[in-house]
């Protein structure tokens, strides 16, 4: 996704939509649609896809253009994304419906819009993380590059802001957040500096102040490598503020259970913590649920998913050149082999911090 900053804010939704469409390139669009195509083109009823991360509607628009019979239900928790994508996709009429929700509500959405009488759909797409719309909107506080209030909520109508988290959390909890969600090895030093400011009565109160505090807290020798030193802290706070990993852990099994037999899931992750959750959920469905030493697989205990990607796919040179935002992407996909009422994907117990930090490498 190329994202030039929004300047000269346009006034109408249509202007916003047009500008967004022009500046946003969906990541691995053709590959996502190729992977979903068999499920959509061979759907037994009117094909339905749920785009769990509507954003600016780039993937959805690509799908609506490529598959003329397709209906897309677009979920987003961000009201601005819903408004903008709805304006952009209005020309598709009732082939597109926006739903403001978090994507762990995907099963209920599938039930509501299913065309097959089973409460299932043909395809589910998840393009995780923040959109360039959110990153570019300075006031949202996602970017360390420009001064703004420390908000970072994707849904600004509810929940704790990053400012409230920084002001109120115990130091140990802040260290845990920076380590677990940002893989920040200098978490204790950064938190010490945050708490020192808090105790002195002038807490960090903007993105710029936080970015500068982090820069000063980390050893000088490490400032020259790996991008801005505040990058990991900002990622960690954003993940915590939006409970991103907890929601994703619930959402992937629910997305899998929303698919008919032959239905397909595609997920694009942008950091290893997300990708590991996706990898584990897919791996759990591609194995028979029997002990390794059992010589046969009893009926009903076989795999209920087949992986469609070998490990995680990455962006190739051409995609990287056209769309720098694709650099960290890891794409995984699977097809449903058996109905969810026979083999429901299990929602895993929440991962502990330690487990999240281990096994960082995913393929
Ligand atoms: C990377 S963007 C998607 C971009 C989109 N594929 C496109 O082409 O325009 C991710 C979107 O997912 C939304 N999102 C993130 N977490 C969510 C959640 N738990 N539930 C619903 N939407 C979520 C964000 O608000 C953001 O708009």
From TrEMBL:
Localization (cell): Cytoplasm
A GO biological-process term: rRNA base methylation
EC number(s) reported in the record: 2.1.1.199
Residue spans of biased composition, Basic residues class: 354-363
A GO term, aspect molecular function: rRNA (cytosine-N4-)-methyltransferase activity
Main location: cytoplasm
Region (Disordered): 336-363
Matching NCBIfam families: 16S rRNA (cytosine(1402)-N(4))-methyltransferase RsmH
Protein task: Specifically methylates the N4 position of cytidine in position 1402 (C1402) of 16S rRNA.
HAMAP family: 16SrRNA_methyltr_H
Family: Belongs to the methyltransferase superfamily. RsmH family.
Protein name: Ribosomal RNA small subunit methyltransferase H
Organism this protein belongs to: Actinomyces urogenitalis DSM 15434
């Amino acid at each position: 996704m190329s994202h030039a900053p929004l300047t000269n804010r346009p006034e109408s939704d249509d202007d916003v939509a047009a500008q967004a469409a022009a500046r946003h390139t969906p990541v691995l669009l053709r590959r996502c649609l190729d992977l979903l195509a068999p499920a959509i083109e061979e759907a037994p009823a009117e094909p339905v896809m749920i785009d769990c991360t509507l954003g600016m509607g780039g993937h959805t628009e690509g799908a609506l253009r490529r598959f003329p019979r397709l209906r897309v239900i677009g979920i987003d928790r961000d009201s601005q994304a819903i408004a903008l994508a709805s304006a952009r996709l209005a020309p598709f009429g009732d082939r597109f419906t926006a739903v403001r929700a978090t994507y762990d509500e995907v099963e209920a959405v599938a039930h509501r819009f299913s065309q097959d009488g089973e409460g299932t759909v043909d395809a589910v797409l998840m393009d995780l993380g923040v959109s360039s719309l959110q990153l570019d909107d300075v006031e949202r506080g996602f970017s360390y590059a420009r001064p703004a209030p420390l908000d970072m909520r994707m849904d600004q109508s509810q929940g704790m802001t990053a400012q409230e988290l920084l002001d109120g959390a115990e130091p140990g909890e802040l260290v845990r957040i920076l380590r677990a969600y940002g893989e920040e090895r200098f978490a204790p030093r950064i938190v010490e500096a945050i708490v020192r400011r808090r105790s002195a009565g002038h807490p960090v109160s903007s993105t710029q102040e936080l970015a500068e505090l982090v820069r000063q807290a980390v050893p000088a020798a490490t400032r020259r490598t790996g991008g801005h030193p505040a990058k990991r802290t900002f990622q960690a706070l954003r993940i915590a503020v939006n409970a991103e990993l907890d929601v994703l852990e619930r959402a992937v099994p629910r997305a899998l259970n929303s698919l008919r037999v032959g239905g397909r899931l595609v997920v694009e992750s942008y950091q290893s913590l997300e990708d590991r959750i996706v990898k584990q959920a897919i791996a759990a469905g591609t194995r028979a649920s029997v002990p390794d030493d059992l010589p046969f697989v009893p009926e009903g205990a076989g795999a209920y998913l087949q992986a469609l990607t070998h490990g995680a796919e990455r962006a190739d040179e051409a995609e990287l050149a056209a769309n720098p935002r694709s650099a960290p992407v890891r794409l995984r996909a699977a097809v449903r082999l058996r109905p969810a009422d026979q083999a429901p994907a299990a929602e895993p117990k929440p991962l502990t911090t330690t487990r999240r930090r281990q096994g960082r490498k995913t393929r």
